[in-house]
Sequence to fold (352 residues):
Amino acid sequence: MTTNLTKKINIIGEKVSIRNKEIGQIEAEISSDTINEQKPTKHRKGLSSDKIIQQAEKTFLRDEQLGLFDVIPVTKKNIFPTILTRIPIFMPITKTMQKKLLDEDNALSFETPFGSGKRYGPNLCVFDEDVLYALSKLTKKKLIGSHKNLPIRVSSTYKPDNKGNVRVNTVLCTISDILREIELSNGGRERTRVLDSLKRLTNSSITLTLKKNDRYLGNCEIGKSVKLIDIEWQLYSEEGFIYGQFSPVVTYWLEQEYTYLDWDIRKRLKSALAKALHRFLSGQINKKNKIFSKLNKIDDIAVSIGFHCRKRDIKKHFTNALDELVGAGYLTEFEITGTGRSEPFRLFAMRG
Fold:
């Protein structure tokens, strides 16, 4: 179902016009350039991705001029929230298996060495993680404004600063941009996969109880659900624009509590487990601290990334995935010790 971001933005603009005598002049200058609220038409088919984004950006420029929010640029980085590398939000198992793990609230409950919580909404996979990572990389602007004045209204769950404002990273892009970022073909099947993933992401939320609650959730009411991202889209016959607004908590994570994620390594990995392990290990080791030897029980790692299999098969699955990480150049060597019975399996690894 297509939502109508432009309509919501115009409603906000109309409210402000009552209080601002200059609005009429501003709207007169740029109204001819704003996006049409129409059903798909043939002439839209010929618009390039860049042209579609340029037209959408003019709508946001108008609202910035109206004083609804401030805009500051965001530098492109290959980063991912550290806490999301340590909890099983994007699971390297099938959706069918995920469904079997849901509780009576139809939510995924989890408890890891780093904290516990629940994931609500659609079952998310490693591909959804790729799409969220692409949206993060495509982010160019941060908006600072009150909860009600942002393009997508922000819940009061998120605490404002002393000026009554919250901060949200935003992305304005096309499906083609996302496909290009994660290096997939621009064919119909892949476009459908991305759009389906966007729908899952915008309908997902998490509740967290963390070992370092103040560090990660200081600007959110304790016990309340956290949205990863709100997404609205305007699709035409073949292309359209996607507007993504990261929640204030995720924006904070991307500002202060992030992990460097090497996309060149990740794109060489084939299995979901190898990608999940790469994500987890990226939050534990880096180029300065190359040795992984703490919090290294295989069972604990499996819980943290959301991997499930028969207990007798876990060493085999981890060994195959770790071999991929060695082949991709991320690890130089690894060893799994223990028997899995009297002595738990433990992972020791060295980053390249």
Q: What stands out?
A: The first strand starts at residue 70 and ends at 73. Confidence is low (pLDDT under 50) at residues 15-46. Residues 97 and 214 are 33 Å apart (CA to CA). The domain at 268-351 is CATH 1.10.10.10 (Arc Repressor Mutant, subunit A).
